[in-house]
Design a protein that fits this description.
This protein is of the alpha+beta class. It is built from 19 helices and 16 strands. The chain has a seven-stranded antiparallel beta sheet. The protein has a five-stranded antiparallel beta sheet with strand order 4-3-2-1-5, with helices on one face. The protein starts with a helix and ends in an 8-residue tail after the last helix. This is Rho guanine nucleotide exchange factor 4.
Amino acid sequence: TDKSSLGDEVGSEDDLYNEFRSSTNRFGHPGGGGGEQLAINELISDGSVCAEALWDHVTMDDQELGFKAGDVIEVVDATNKEWWWGRVLDSEGWFPASFVRLRVNQDEPMDDYLAHLDGVPEGSGASVGRSLGPGLPCKEQMRANVINEIMSTERDYIKHLKDICEGYIKQCRKRTDMFNEEQLRMIFGNIDELYRFQKKFLKALEKKFNKEQPHLSEIGSCFLENQTEFQIYSEYCNNHPNACVQLSKLMKIKKYVFFFEACRLLQKMIDISLDGFLLTPVQKICKYPLQLAELLKYTNPQHRDYKDVEAALNAMKNVARLINERKRRLENIDKIAQWQSAIEDWEGDDILSRSSDLIFSGDLTKISQPQAKNQQRMFFLFDHQLVFCKKDLLRRDILYYKGRMDMDQMEVVDVEDGKDKDLNVTVKNALKLVSLAGDEVHLLCAKKPELKQRWLRAFADEREQVQHDFETGFSITELQKKQAMQNASKSHPAGKPKAVTRPYYDLLLRQKHPALPTSLPQQQVIMLAEPKRKTSNFWHNIGRLTPFKK
């Protein structure tokens, strides 16, 4: 059988399982294993090993080594595959191995190279024209380096995806006694779809790649022509946390540990566990903007590829933002469902039936037809709808549902201080919601002018978000909505007192970016946004759900 043949090659199931559980470095650490690392460290033991920086490494961490593209780094330790320890002049620290390329000529003394640099005045023409390769000035050589790096990583990535599809998924489908299609979709997501797309993308790159003179390659258009198709990474990235959970459960069972390791060995894949392999597409889509930024940096404005690379960089940044936004929105729906489950006397459809994002919230005075009676209410502006609640007189952390407005059918009007002609009342810091049919008018009054302006901006943001969701095709599936509501109902059993809480907010505030080189492998840190991305509006506003606790 398949299983017996696999067992002959990798040993007994118990032996393999025990080895796996006892060897966390080999299977769980991205730096474990690999003949390349041994070879590099052997070179280091024989003397200094030098590498050229392909990208700038800017860091505020005193444990990390900062440098600029083109700098030469003395590699002191390359034991870890992802992070190496190096030295530039008098500075030492960790740096990403993927940011450098080992120098071809390791015989050139480091001191000679540094002396050469010291002899070139900073900012002089000689510095700009310095050659890092035969017959090419520095900037063109660096552009060639970046192009070669992009092509090399794309080819490696295709092999990586092929290994997962053929080495794991294909074998899993043969074992219907161990896996069903739902499990496989949960673990591997749409990685087979990524594989088909990336093969097509690599072919497009190869056509534009100038093998003889890489710096003359014009690859920017390849990214522009495929920017929409890159959005398929959104589904994969959104599913990845679920894949990790499912895989973690299976890896507690010996036969699955044995099976996955046998798949890796038969496919002759490097010594990394399956969860490490499955993280690669998440990292890949994040790396494109970095690579294109470096390519643009070393592309002269007169180069035929300059405008396309510039546009491609913006396009891939937008793809990363879109993926990040979709991931954030999917994470939000659980929190929104929990918020709704804490509201007393809820009526009508679930909030998730139409909405997936809290845009703004706060206290307002509501005046409506026909009585024009002042009512103090807590308002929550979601995409497509505005929900308002009443606070409990005794327990201020309890809210009662009082109604909602369909923002798709409402127009927001700024109201001047004074008497309102529609409701015949004198108002201050007010805005008006008028139904498009004209049969419904609501005045909302803020306590301060600046709060009124903030609400006006929030209503404008809501319309922009609805339009953006429509243009990008963003939606939450019925299954995702149902699962979120089921999870929320479990957190509030029947008969248990409800209160509006913020179950994840304090935890989020305690989270810090980890000191990566000392404790956490880079592969475990997923960042789907630019470093200076604006804080999520949801987290900014969810704190307002409980401003009334005493």
